[in-house]
Amino acid sequence: MVPTCANIKLAIASLSLLLLTASSYSQQPWPKGVEACGDTSKLFRKSNENVVWLSTKQMKAISIERITPVFPKSCRCQGQILIAVVVNPEGKVACTHVISGHPLLASPSTQAAIKWTFKPMIKRGVNVSFVGLLVFKFSGNGAVTY
Q1: N or C end of the chain: which has fewer CB within 10 A?
Q2: What's the pLDDT tens digit per position in 68-126?
Q3: H or E stretch including 53?
Q4: What's the CATH number where 17 sits?
């Protein structure tokens, strides 16, 4: 397979995000674009507090319910979608933000991601919110994996 510019850009973006989340329960600021979630994000954070970021592998490990996106019938595309999700202290997805991927695959991916649930994260005896990454891979044959 010959790498295309889109694949190379996606690989660079994915690598930078993986490096950002390489350590278990790494502390990072809130993601850019979370303000688009409205007041939801403000409910979960205190001023100047860093947030726990989890990798895709960590997110799968603590997930309770996973919903697979529906492959769009009108799309003959394939690829992967990288989504950042803000999870509230109860373990429910409060907000999603598409980081990269084909625009026709973004909507079904966000619709599925918003339905995922996770084990609540406890920090210093208190349930806390966290941000994590989800990757959905769409194959040309109509299969979707995460």
Answers
A1: N
A2: 999 888 778 889 999 999 898 899 998 898 999 988 899 999 999 999 999 999 888 88
A3: strand 51-54
A4: 3.30.2420.10
